[in-house]
Design goal:
The complex is a heterodimer. Chain A is about 40% helix and about 20% strand. Chain A is α+β, with helices and mostly antiparallel strands. Chain A has three domains: about 5-40 and about 410-475, no CATH class; about 85-215 and about 330-355, Cytochrome-c3 Hydrogenase, chain B; about 220-325, no CATH class. In chain A, strands 3-2-1-15-16 form a five-stranded antiparallel sheet, covered by helices on one side. Chain A has a four-stranded mixed sheet with strand order 8-7-6-11. In chain A, strands 12-13-14 form a three-stranded antiparallel sheet. In chain A, a hairpin with an 8-residue loop joins β9 (about 265) and β10. In chain A, α6 (about 140-160) packs antiparallel against α7 and α9 packs antiparallel against α10. Chain B is of the alpha+beta class. Chain B folds into two domains: about 5-75, Roll (Ubiquitin-like (UB roll)), CATH 3.10.20; about 85-215, 2-Layer Sandwich (Alpha-Beta Plaits). Chain B contains six helices and twelve strands. In chain B, α2 crosses α3 (about 110-120). Chain B is globular, with a radius of gyration of 19 Å. The relative contact order of chain B is 0.13. The chains are: A alpha+beta, B alpha+beta. The interface of A and B includes residues 50, 52, 60, 362 and 390 of A.
């Protein structure tokens, strides 16, 4: 008898999704799918607008990582203008991007995943959320909130507001950084460093608990993609686009605007999320992962002392110097990136050339096509625009980080379901483990965090004739 | 100029003959919303936001185009008027694609300000979501028809202040549009002097400077009074804030 199990909605992720498990006659999982059930349509409705507006419009794709869209969009705009952005503006853009990495990664680790890691996968779902964490471990919860606040403050001080700052524009940024605001960020840094170290300790402590489980949390060979500096260091704003295989061989190391040559997009009728893949290997064999894990796998080194020290430890989870293939280590990679971002922020703030008023290059449409790339917290983000001679958009293509992890997320769900679901009935803790498999990728499916732990989950096992076999309701 | 007495909201008010009801009401410090009206431009009476109740006749009149007359009794903020004003604003929002969050005039838009002031928290009518173009063919300016409320300030300022009459209006009802040079792309207009007055007087983000991003556009109306004072009163400069005749 075949059955279908649906986890709807998936909680503690950003956006709306559900998971379906298909059980075969033997009660074992035959297939598992991660469905994104919302549709945004930005690629369609932005056509006809001007490219100047795009950073502001596309920022609204997401309330967690608007900065990534603003930067990718502004960079696509830079290319349409055909200008060189003032070096100061580039440094300021990088500063904001690091601020965003800190706040978004802190949100993923402390608010969304720490309840599972610290309270336990099988703990009471009613309190397995940030509220439960506040009750059980108030200092950790407070630290997480403070670290996120640091990142948000960096964004606010630069862009005027922490969510959707319309600050980066084609040609540069709108406002320079004042000495006063720079000093304020400096004053907040020591506490942020302390919390980053605390998070690393907490994660390492919880590794023991999950030692037997980590191999089923999405551990499989795949390609990895991310930006690197020209000399191979960890990069989030510009540089070269690198693809490595599961053995660490570099398959691509090119200008990011060449991505079309090797990135294809497939669609499936059961989800609104597209499936990007590495063209030379075809679909779906060309599965690749992006995001913190991928970035640490593609780079040769981080480039800052503390992050490099952690990176050496992180690499021990890979087989004999090969890339780390277990998606559970996304958590670790995320925390290393927080540390890296804080170090880079500290270094950049010490640069006196950061202050000054020339932050925007003025020009008009000089190119009909512009590609902007940035490393969003969740992975590589591409904005690709085609404009007419007046700058009106004729075509918009956005390849979002979460989409690029779509094949890997589906594979992770399948792996977890096959490991834990055997047809003898389902426990809530098992379903939570499957959801956690998705949380590892910190998917950003829309522009809000309204799914913080309080959303109900309704799971039904139904026989092929529709008869209800088992039902689990989480209020 | 004869003095007249008008009753505004049950209060006796003195005015001068030739004054409009809008002038008189605003002189009393009463905030009467307007969108098509702009000091310095001839009146149109098109937006209907400044409607007031006149006398006991249940009649409504647009204050901007109604001369104040001796013995008039008017009400400016009756429950019915507030309801109608909100309805007008909702219809304006429903008619085109006003997305404040990503508009170049967010925070400075007159339409947005009036909607906030009256407490318009939602629109009860179906949005028409028309498929309207942007014309970015002009070297310095852009017209985005999605944000146009057809106040015709641009048409009036271009005709009566600049004297170019580049702007005009075509079509009827929901198909009505402001156009340049008999519906040619703005960039190819031979009458446009690129003075930018139309951009400055536009109450929304419909007309804006090229290259503006979200909430970046700032518009100034002061120039209008300076030009008109110079042209009509020969006042070209100010000294300590007071106008100086002849500019000396």
């Amino acid at each position: 008898m075949t059955r279908t199990v649906t986890i709807d909605p998936v909680t503690r992720i950003e956006g709306h999704a559900k998971i379906t498990l298909y059980l075969g006659d033997d009660g074992k999982v035959a297939d598992a799918r991660f469905h994104v059930v919302e549709f945004r349509g930005f690629e369609k409705f932005c056509v006809g607008r001007s490219f100047w507006e795009m950073p502001g419009i596309t920022a609204r794709v997401c309330g967690i990582c608007p900065v990534s869209h603003i930067l990718a969009s502004a960079k696509a705009g830079d290319n349409i203008l055909g200008v060189r952005v003032p070096p100061r503006a580039e440094k300021l853009r990088r500063l904001m991007n690091w601020g965003q990495l800190v706040q978004s990664h802190a949100l993923s680790f402390f608010h969304l995943s720490a309840p599972d890691l610290l309270l336990g996968m099988d703990s009471d779902p009613a309190t397995r959320n940030i509220m439960g964490l506040i009750q059980n471990n108030p200092s950790v919860a407070r630290s997480g909130i403070r670290l996120r606040q640091f990142g948000q403050e960096v964004i606010r001080l630069l862009g005027g507001k922490s969510v959707h700052p319309a600050w980066a524009v084609a040609g540069g940024v709108r406002d320079p950084l004042t000495a006063e605001d720079r000093n304020q960020i400096k004053r907040m840094l020591p506490e942020a460093f302390d919390i980053a170290e605390l998070a690393l300790d907490l994660l390492k402590d919880s590794y023991d608990k999950f030692e037997s489980e980590t191999p089923v949390y999405g551990d499989f060979p795949s390609l990895f993609m991310g930006l690197v500096t020209p000399d191979g260091g960890l990069e989030h704003y510009d540089g070269l686009l690198r693809v490595v295989d599961e053995d660490g061989r570099v398959l691509e190391n090119v200008n990011p605007s060449d991505f079309r040559r090797f990135v294809g997009e497939a669609v499936e009728p059961w989800t609104y999320l597209k499936f990007p893949y590495y063209k030379p290997l075809g679909y779906p064999q060309g599965m690749y992962r992006v995001g913190p894990l991928a970035r640490l796998n593609v780079c040769d080194f981080a480039g800052t002392p503390r992050a490099d020290r952690e990176l050496r430890q992180f690499r021990r989870y890979g087989q004999r110097g090969k890339p780390v293939t277990g998606s559970f280590h996304y958590h670790y990679a995320r925390l290393i990136e927080i540390l890296f971002s804080l170090e880079r922020i500290e270094e950049t703030l010490a640069d006196e050339s950061l202050l000054g008023t020339h932050v925007r290059s003025i020009s008009d449409v000089n190119e009909s096509r512009g590609i902007g790339v940035s490393e969003a917290p969740r992975g590589t983000l591409f904005h690709e625009y085609e404009v007419d001679g007046n700058g009106i958009l004729q075509k918009v293509n956005m390849i979002i980080a979460t989409g690029q992890n779509n094949l890997a997320m589906n594979r992770t769900v399948q792996q977890l379901a096959r490991a834990y679901v055997n047809g003898d009935g389902l426990s809530e803790g098992v379903l939570n483990r499957i959801e956690h498999g998705i949380r590892l990728y910190d998917p950003c499916l829309s522009c809000s965090t309204h799914a913080v732990g309080q959303m109900p989950m309704h799971v039904q096992l139904r026989a092929p004739d529709g008869a209800l076999v088992q039902e689990i309701i989480r209020d | 100029m004869a003095v007249i007495t008008v009753t505004i909201n049950d209060e006796l008010v003195s005015g001068r003959t030739g004054q409009s009801l809008l002038e008189l009401v605003r002189e009393r410090g009463i905030d009467l919303p307007t969108l098509c009206h702009l000091d310095g431009l001839e009146e149109r009476g098109g937006c209907r936001l400044c409607m007031v109740e006149v006398g006991a006749t249940n009649r409504l009149a647009a204050a901007c185009v109604t001369p104040a007359q001796e013995g008039m009794v008017i009400y400016t903020h009756s429950e019915r008027l507030v309801r109608y004003r909100r309805m007008i604003l909702e219809l304006l929002f429903a008619e085109r694609n006003h997305v404040c969050a990503v508009c170049v005039m967010n925070g400075r838009c007159e339409l947005q300000r009036e909607a906030y002031t009256i407490g318009m928290d939602h629109v009860r009518y179906d949005y028409l979501t028309p498929d309207l173009p942007m014309d970015a063919s002009h070297e310095r300016f852009v017209i985005d028809h999605n944000r146009c409320i057809l106040c015709t300030r641009c048409v009036r300022v271009c005709d009566s202040v600049e004297g170019a009459h580049t702007w005009d209006v075509m079509g009827r009802g929901v198909n009505c549009r402001v156009i340049t040079d008999l519906h040619q792309p703005w960039g190819s207009s031979r009458s446009c002097t690129s003075c930018g007055k139309c951009v400055q007087v536009c109450p929304t983000g419909a007309l804006h400077a090229k290259g503006s991003s979200v909430a970046e556009m700032v518009k100034h109306h002061d120039f209008l009074q300076w030009i008109l004072d110079g042209r009509e009163k020969k006042q070209w400069a100010t000294r300590n804030g007071d106008p100086v005749e002849g500019g000396r």
